[in-house]
Amino acid sequence: MKKGYYIHFQGRQSIGVSKKIDMQMEELGKFYEMQEIAVETPVRSLAWRVLGLFPVASITRDYKAALEQMDDPDFLYVRRTVADREYLHFWKQVKERYPNCRILIELFTYPYDKDDFGKWNAWPFYLKELLYRPRLKKYVDRFVTYTDDKEIFGIPTIRSANGINVDSVPQIAGAFQDGQINMIGVAFMQRHHGYERIIEGMREYYDGGQTPELKIRLRLGGVTGRRSRCIRNWWKNIIWRNTSSSIPRCRGKNWTSCMMTVIWHWYPSGCTRRDFTVSWERSNPENALPRECR
């Protein structure tokens, strides 16, 4: 049986990513002998972190420990991270030590430049990417992508499909209601999750010129703040300007920091009054809402 290593860069810090790693390890383990390697980032002083922002500098990662854990691998399955000089050198070392090893890097979202580097404080990492990403084709054999691209950054791709192990998710019983569809999404509300597509689809459905047959409810739960601003902006641009809305908020505060329920009363032309509810709840295990939001 061929031997493979699943390599990630502190992916276990995210619950969602950790679950995906477990599912991928389980599936790959059906066909290969798999081991997991986590490339750790050691504690750094402020000075080292600032120096690491320069384009030719590298983010401090313990590549040596990761390399020492390998034993004649046939392939490496890698969850992508920011490319820099040491990142590139790590793959070079792998190829020098194990020339027949195949390196596969999963692009869990593509294109990713706007998602990962759209904010001003991510520009130093974007410069690293632009400088070192084109050189990956020297060492990387394939990108794994969920798109239809046959080649990315000069590297051939393996086109796959994103998903989950449905056997590991028990089905729950719910109260069925005629004329109603209830949807729920639980995530960190990152830009690439695409919740704006559902919201835009709801707008098109309710504004289709005919009386909607179904009442659609979408509930979103997850971390708020900066990670959810893309959803907030889409609400403003797509729905808020077309509706009569009543949005509870903290006066003078960022409303995404509050637990809230937003109810829009929709008045599509030629239709009777229809309501749909979008619930937004802040993920807080201690239920410690800001005082001004209570």
Please tell me about this protein's structure.
The protein is α/β, with parallel strands linked by helices. 26% of the residues lie in helices and 23% in strands. The chain is built from 8 helices and 12 strands. Strands 2-1-3-4-5-7-6 form a 7-stranded mixed sheet, with helices on one face. A 5-stranded mixed sheet has the order 8-9-12-11-10, covered by helices on one side. α7 links the parallel β8 (180-187) and β9. The relative contact order is 0.09.
Summed up, what is this model?
This protein has 294 residues and is of the alpha/beta class. The protein has helices at 15-28, 46-51, 63-68, 85-97, 113-117, 123-132, 195-206, 229-239; strands at residues 3-8, 33-38, 75-79, 102-107, 142-145, 151-152, 155-159, 180-187, 215-222, 244-246, 260-266, 274-282. Strand 3 (75-79), helix 4 and strand 4 form a beta-alpha-beta unit.
